[in-house]
Design a protein that fits this description.
The chain is α/β, with parallel strands linked by helices and 357 residues long. It is built from 14 helices and ten strands. It has two domains: 160 residues, no CATH class; 164 residues, no CATH class. The strands form two sheets. A seven-stranded parallel beta sheet has the order 1-10-9-8-7-6-5. Strands 2-3-4 form a three-stranded antiparallel beta sheet, with no helix packed on it. Strand 2 and strand 3 form a beta hairpin. Helix 11 packs parallel to helix 13. The protein starts with a helix and ends in a 9-residue tail after the last helix. The relative contact order is 0.13.
Length: 357
């Protein structure tokens, strides 16, 4: 992705094109005929200027990280045990690290000097450690503190029911764990700033379900939003661009999220509604739109896919900027639909006549 163009889009400074991130999940290389998928990447250089991954060009196995490797349980830095049934997919926590709330007092948090929420790290001045993807842009000094850093990590450690009920009851043990998570996240943020001198920092945390958020707006406002504000503040003071990602229906939380110093909000299109996003977010925050990968691109026709892209560009596009488009390709999407989406995005990202105004 072009650095200058991305910054113009984020700063509403009339970009030459809409920045597009088209992520091919590594599981795709074991699902589709490799050469067919590789050919699509080679023929869409606007989206994939570097072509297929090097391991594909060399005919090597896909190097899945341990949390995306099937048949091998993986223990995260907080002691939660994860399992996945599909190589390339992040699985689910099968064993929470805390079975009873009394155990929180003995929980030893990981050290941000040595690890993020997901992978080991060695901090070096002038180097931004990689390993994540959501909210990470390689054309900038960019980092991300780890998907599921606060509320979801509370759920990973305790389980959903114990986490939500503990927040509802303001249980001092659960609130102590929340403070522990905040301190760890602050340690990561401070290191990304001190060592990486980041220009862009991602805060990814899924808060929504198919209908409504996973946590009530009142509980979110009381317990989670203040943590977000405190862990974002150092990056804001550093003048880094703050990017936040959340899957699911987050409409009820958006008014509170917009009080944070975030500059870019990555959210899903269909579950929140393109028209709702246009009416409530366009021009107020940079929209990083996560294109549908559950309905139109999976079950629709290539014509449906192209029509959806046209709707997105017409309603959310703006010659001044403020729009990024993101799509994740996963097994199950017909390759002809993926090809239609690539065509529509390569054409639409450059064609200002398709943009809303």
């Amino acid at each position: 992705m072009d650095r200058k163009n991305l910054l113009k889009a984020v700063n509403f400074d009339f970009p030459d094109a809409i920045p597009v991130v088209f992520h091919v999940n590594p599981a795709c290389w074991d699902h589709y005929p490799r050469e067919d998928l590789a050919a699509l990447l080679r023929t869409h250089t606007g989206l994939f200027p570097e072509g297929p991954p090097e391991y594909i060009e060399k005919g090597e196995p896909v190097p899945h990280p341990p949390w995306c490797t099937s048949g091998t349980p993986w223990t995260d830095p907080w002691g939660c045990v994860w399992e996945t049934s599909v190589n390339g997919f992040v699985g689910a926590v099968r064993q929470h690290s805390v079975k009873e709330l009394e155990e929180i007092a003995a929980l030893v948090p990981p050290d941000p000097e040595n690890t993020t929420h997901w992978y080991p790290v060695q901090w070096e001045r002038g180097v931004v450690p990689g390993g994540g993807s959501i909210g990470f842009f390689g054309c900038l000094r960019s980092g991300e503190i780890g998907h599921g850093h606060t509320f979801l990590k509370l759920v990973d450690i305790l389980g959903y029911e114990a986490a939500v009920c503990g927040l509802h009851d303001a249980d001092p043990r659960v609130l102590a764990l929340l403070r522990m998570l905040e301190e760890f996240n602050l340690g990561l943020v401070e290191r990304f700033i001190e060592y990486g001198q980041v220009e862009w920092l991602g805060y990814a945390e899924d808060l929504g379900m198919q209908q409504g958020p996973m946590i009530s707006p009142e509980l979110f406002r009381r317990h989670i939003l203040p943590v977000y504000r405190r862990i974002m503040e150092p990056a804001h003071e550093h003048d880094a661009i703050i990017h936040m990602h959340s899957d699911g229906d987050i409409r009820a939380l958006v008014p509170d999220l917009l009080t944070l110093p975030l500059r870019v909000l990555n959210l899903q299109d269909r579950v929140n509604g393109v028209s709702w996003i246009e009416e409530n977010l366009k021009g107020r925050v940079v929209i990083d739109l996560d294109l549908d990968r559950q309905h139109v691109t999976v079950s629709g026709t290539p014509a449906d896919v192209r029509a959806h892209v046209r709707e997105v560009l017409r309603k959310l596009g703006d010659r001044a900027g403020g729009l990024i488009i993101t799509f994740g390709l996963y097994p199950g999407t017909p390759l002809e639909n993926a090809a239609a989406l690539m065509d529509a995005l390569e054409e639409g990202m450059q064609d200002r006549n398709q943009w809303g105004r």
